[in-house]
Specification:
Length: about 450
Amino acid sequence: MAAIAGLLISHYPPGNLLWGSLAITIFAVSFINIEWGLYILIFSMLLSPEIIVGQTEGGASGRGVTLRFEDFLLAVIGLSWFAKNAVHKELGLFLKTPLNKAILIYVLACVVSTGFGIIAGRVSTKTGTLFVLKYIEYFIVFFMIVNHVKNTDQIHRFVFCLFLTCFITAVIGIVQIPGGGRVSAPFEGDIGEPNTFGGYLLFIGTIAAGLFAMVKTSKARHILAVLILVIIPPFLFTQSRSSYLALIPACLVLGLMMERRVIILGVLALSFLLSPLFLPSAVKQRIMYTFNQPHASAQINVGDIRLDTSTSARLTSWKEALRDWPKHPLFGYGITGYAFVDAQFPRVLLETGIVGLIAFIYLLYSILKLTLDILKKTKTPYFKGIGIGFLAGYTGLLFHAIGANTFIIVRIMEPFWFFVGIIAVLPAMEPQLDDPPQEFAIAGKAATAGL
């Protein structure tokens, strides 16, 4: 080991050796206990730096291939998970869930469409492969959670850590507000991605709201209330109109799922109507900018209303998708084989064709069906709160995807699939709550042994 270390030190920069040592350490820690690795992954989702590794080639030219620390971390933890399953074969690699078939079909659609794009020369091999692997890594998060969670205490710890990460990033967002400009997540580089941050805050905030409505303990409600209050300011100052739009259906679903839905929906409707009176001026200006931007050549008119260039570009992308899709109708242009489109559904149609779009919609439907089935089966307030909050957040993300690539953005999708994994295991956790406390269980075993 000393000889190998000396050889490496003489041939590689210290920074590379440090990263290599860190990867080996995380691999070893995750191999010993995968839960420790998952905690590291949770905090790295929003609190890790990004690295631009060159420029993409082909149709999506000009977009950087963005790799974050959690991408490397997830690769290391995933390899450790595979290695542990190879040693302990009884653990199982992919637990059977209602989403397995939908995930497999969508992954195959992405791989096949990108393969055809590479053969045809529309997709760079390096770029297409990297993007497809990034899509697959979200599903690895899901399967690691599904395979690892064995008891309710783990769920409590994971959810707490996910909320703590959101709290830290929200506080960092609040600190950015006095500086002016749009609030973004930490470590986003010089430009930032406020739209991404808005979608993330919306998703975590609705889950916190669902739990707040269902849990009964005052301590938990106080913690959740603080989290929700801390989320609101940075969410507003992201000035993300896609996130504002997504908030409306998310709140509507939250209200419909509550016991006193009429009262709650009435309060929500009144709040939206009175919002112009108390919203910050920057937020109101951002919303009105959609309709009162000074005249520019790229704007689109809808009747007598002139839309700003950003909204016009998104509407144009939908129009261009329907125009160019018939050129490669079945499997599309391949991942990154078409020019950058900042809207999820037309991008899926263009890159993977009608086959990929059907597979994608089937995956979305499967997630919705799983969530609704879980809500019917679970009776525990804590689990029901997670389910209701997730359903509201999921609905919001579907609308957020109208003006963003929501379902391929790493900082939204990693926590999203983490929660999908939690949702999938809730029915198996429900009977555990009916078990007697540990001390009574031990006493019962002792009595049985004595008899």
